[in-house]
Amino acid sequence: MREILAFVFFFCFACLSAQSGVGPLSADVRPGDSTQQHQVVLLDYSTFLGTVVAVDDDSLRMRVVNIAEPLTFPVSQLRKVRVVREGGAAPAPEIGFDDFTFVRSALPFGGRRRFKTVSLAYNVLDFNLNRHLQLTVGNAALLGLTFGQRFRTSAKDWLHLGLSNEMLLVPIVTFSGGGIGVGGDLTGLVTIGNEDQMFNLGVGMLYAFGGGAVPAYRVGVGTRLSPTVHVYGEMLAVGDAGDQLILLPTLNVALTRRRHRWSFGLATTVVDSENFLYLPLPYLSYAVYY
User: Are residues 277 and 155 in the same domain?
Assistant: First the structure.
């Protein structure tokens, strides 16, 4: 067990070591500089063009053409503030980082809808009803249909809380007839940080109706290397009645282009009783936001 805990520590440290310190304001934004034109992108991807006149701990003020009074935006609602280059069109907002590949987070949702596939084996469509509630429908390979619900909220700009449940409905065929097997994944979520740098912790259980439940724990850490590149790691830990721990860690690089994201990852398995690291397997994830 000590070896596994050391592996977890190294895993988290490696992912956090590349801190970028990128915030909502780009480094070249100069508040009050009338020679610059700025683009403000909110969490819901609403965009505004004008000149940022002031920024403090709680709010940003922006002067927009044809509006006499400056607009005021809460800092907690800002996704990105950047300079529009002279003679150029305003850049289309890039989708921010809002989720890991296998580990769900409590970060603000991106867009209104999202389609996501992992190596064409796991496919889901997310519907964001509002800033706090998301519903999901999809399929898991040939096993069956998935239905999910996620609630999230932000206690602070850097502290996000959530609750996620995903159910899997599997047709069961036996000699005596058929039926539907139902299992699921219920997890409480705590995410610290934002889309530039985040740490995610999930505590919950994997359950099956009529089959009991086992504890499950999730860890996710990530950081932004550039406006379009993120690196992140995630890990699922599952216990059983025999006090054995199974770890499923992954390492990923994500590339974003406007409303599309491609993630390239490696996944492996560590079993407590064997203390053996299985050969990592590659996978590809793709998501598009609407």
Answer: yes
